[in-house]
Each structure stands twice: as structure tokens, then as C-alpha cells.
Amino acid sequence: MNAAHLLNWTLLIPLLAVVGIVLCSRWENLRETASLGAAAILFAVVCTLYGNLRDGVELAVHWIEILPGLAISFRVDTMGMVFALIASSLWFVTVLYAIGYMRGHDEQNQTRFYACFAVAISAVMGIAFAENLFTLFVFYEVLSLCTYPLVTHAGNEKAKNGGRIYLGILLGTSIALFLPAIIGTWMLSGTLDFTPGGVFPEGTSPVLLSVLLVLFAFGIGKAALMPFHRWLPAAMVAPTPVSALLHAVAVVKAGVFSVVKVVVFIFGIDTVADLPVTSWLVYLAGASILLASLVAMRQDNFKSRLAYSTVSQLGYITLGAFMASQAAIVGSMLHITMHAFGKITLFFCAGAVYVAHHKSEISQLDGMGRVMPVTFIAFTLGALSIIGLPPLGGVWSKWFLMMGALDSGYLIMLAVLSISSLLNIVYLLEIPARAFLRPAPAGASLQEARPSSVVAMVITTLMCIALFIYGSDLYEFIRSARLV
Asked: Packing angle between helix 3-23 and helix 78-104, nearest 10 degrees?
């Protein structure tokens, strides 16, 4: 098969999985085998594309031209490959986890869950490999729509209200800000193709470019830059595998990935560095990092604390994008990867505690490390990766973000990143400290989550360690991207 045709299959395999999932809806083992099988095949295809990219093979496909120069088309590049590898590998792991969670919690509408999850992965592949801003926008919106049924999965009033906030903010920012930014880019440059160094002609008004950059920054609502972040905590009404999808596999990563792509390939990092509005956006991202961390410290609900932690960690990635240096961009892409595996581990642990012991508040976790040792060891290691301590992968992304702050001259951001890491220690390590250092509940016995969920947690925890060991390889691959 022509290597470029494999690019089509990255979008089609998850959609074919939907057919298999729906046809096997009466036989849950077959249904989940279809989902796991499709995830494994997709990961194999993405790995094949990775090999072709490393060998210098041109990988691009053209679907349809809407207007002259405005087409749905795809191309494999280094940044998109990083995102696709994260999403395709974590699809398999999340489905494995979901089997134990959904059955253990006797969730309804499981077929709809697996089907919508597959559609979301297809949309993510479209975003990862989009050749132009128009293609990215189309699949960005598809991702918002197909994840709405997952957010409202429970079907109760609380879930519906959370879904309204989720869809309202994401669609509202897209229509009111993101779409006008795309139209403005088209009018000023005549193209929406992702181009190293940017698309705007020399001499374009810095004021117009500043307005467009602000529209993109807030219009890409999935990046959860304050004040457009409320959708993310509101969506925590969803089952934990959905929270994992939102925080690690698809939605927020699609947001920050889009911000990085826009900065690098629509504006160009040199242009962004010179714009008068850039420093304002840098300070806003820094404020988001600290404010969300402070809010997280006050949350007693397990998933709510992790949600605000995600808002803070996304601030690291947007900060790196707006600091607009090569080291900062590399740090942002590294943090997309490190945060994905660290945060999904934390959500897996939260869900495991809820299913096995029906505890959802941090104040209820005293002594639970003696009852669920594997779960809380996994949580500890995932938290250390988020904090940025060796031997976990998160240390590399924070290091390069700090180097990016030095290169860009934003020395105050070194203090922001350091203070944030200290706050991470406070609100994340409190959880395993309670679990291991306080007495176990009276009459409690050893009871871990279902085996498939435990295996998924172990896999993502080991990946946090592997990303530390092989961090230099990932760094070199990201660094090979044409940024200018």
C-alpha cells in the first residue's frame, strides 16, 4: 500500500470501529474487542507513518477543494506525529481501563460510549495531520460535537448542565473568535496552509496581527486559557474514562496543539516574538498557571482538583507557545506528551478508587494506600511526573520551558514555573500522603480495581518513567521540526 494512503486509514479506522462496536452491541466482549482491535491497528498504522517520516518519505493526501486554495487535506509533520502517537497509544490504554471501569460501575449506554470515543479519535487524527487551518477547524468542531454525548453520559440534570457549559463555551469561542480569526488570516495572507515561518506577508500591520493572535488565543477554547476554562471543570460530571479522554487523549491536547501550530506555522515564532500583544499573553498564561493551582488546592473533590490542575498545566504549554523561542516551543511539545501520560495516570487512579470503594473526596482517602497500594503508587509516580521531578518524564518539559523563558527574556516566568511546581507538590502529594501515612479505615481489606484497569494504570505509569529515560530521543525528534 502507498504510504500516503495510510494517512487516510488513520481517520477511517476509528470510524470503521464504530460500525463494529454498534453491530456487536449485544455482545459486550465482542464490542470491546472491536474497540481494542481498532485501537491496536491504528497505533500500528501511526507507527508505520512515523517510520516513513523518519525516512524522509512525503506523506500527504488531498480530499476535497471547497474553494480555490481552500481544501480538506492532510500532511504528516513532526508535531502532528507526536500528537498522533500520543492519542493512538492512549486510545488503546483508555479502552482497556474503561472495560474495568464501565463494567465495575454498571454504566448504562456503554455502546454509545465506545462509539463516540472512536469518533473522537478519528477527529483527533484529523487535527493532528491537518495540512491547513481550515481542515484543523473542521475536525476541531467535530471533536466538540462528538464528545458532548460523552460528557452528558449519565443523563441526569447535573450531567446535562455540565454538557451545556461544555458545548456552550467551546462552540461559542469557536464561532465568535476562532472562525473570525481564520477568516481574517485568509483575507490578509490569501492562504491557510501551515507554513514554516508563517503565512503573513512582510509589512502586515502589527496591530492587525496582534488582534488576530488574541482571537486565536481565546478562540481555541479547548486550550482552557483563563477566563475560558469553566467548561473543563464542568465536564467532570462525565465518567472517569471520559475525563481521561478530555484531559489526556484528545480534547485539551487538541486545544494546546492547535495553539502551538498557529503560533509556529501561521504567525511564525519571530513574528509572535515581536508583536506588542505577546507579552500580555505571556503574563496571562503565567497567571492561569498560578491561579488554577491555587484553586486546585481548595478542591476536596478528587476529579475537580485534577481538573484545575489540568487548567494550570495547559498554561505551561500556551506559555511556551507565546514565549516564541525554539526552546520554549520544544518545551511545549514535550509537555503535551509528558502531561498526557502523567495526567491520565492520575485520572485512572481517581476512577479506580471510586469504582472499588465509592470514594470521590480527597478527605475520604485516609489510609487508602494500604487498601489500594498499586493504585496509589501509580498516583504518586504520575504526580511526580506532573511536578517535574526525576526519574519521571515531566522534568524534561519543565526544563526546556525554563530554558525558553531565558531565551525569550521572560525571567519572571522562571519564578512562575518554580512557584507552580511547589504548588503542584502541595495539592498533588497531599493525596498519597493521606493514603499512605494515615491509618486505614476500620475493617478495610485489600481491594484493587478490576484487573484491566490496574493493567492500564501500570502501563501509563511505566510510560512516565520511560519518557524520562528516552526523553532525549523525543527531544531530538521534536527539535527536527522545521519551526522557521
From this structure: 10
Q: What is the pLDDT of residues 55-101, one digit of tens each?
A: 888 888 998 888 877 889 999 999 999 999 999 999 999 999 988 88
Is the torsion defined by CA of 247, 249, 252, 257 positive or negative? Answer: positive
Prediction pTM value:
0.93
Place of cell 481552500: 70
Q: What ranges in 298-411 are assigned the alpha helix state H?
A: 302-323, 326-357, 373-387, 394-408
Question: CA–CA separation, 284 vs 96, rounded Å?
Answer: 38
pLDDT attached to residue 247: 67
Distance CA 236, CA 254 (A): 18
Q: Helix 394-408 vs helix 326-357: angle between axes, to the nearest 10 degrees? A: 150
Question: Of 277, 245, 221, which Cα lies nearest the Cα of 150?
Answer: 245
DSSP 73: E
391 cis-preceded (ω within 30 degrees of 0): yes
Phi, psi (deg, nearest 5) at residue 291:
-65, -45
245 C-beta neighbours (distance < 10 Å), count: 32
| 291/285 Cα distance (integer angstroms) | 10
CA nearest neighbour of 360 among 418, 412, 306: 306
CA nearest neighbour of 266 among 177, 171, 188: 188
CA distance 166 to 243: 13
State how far the Cα of 181 lies from the Cα of 195, in Å rounded to an integer.
17
pLDDT at 484 over 70: no
How many residues belong to the chain?
484
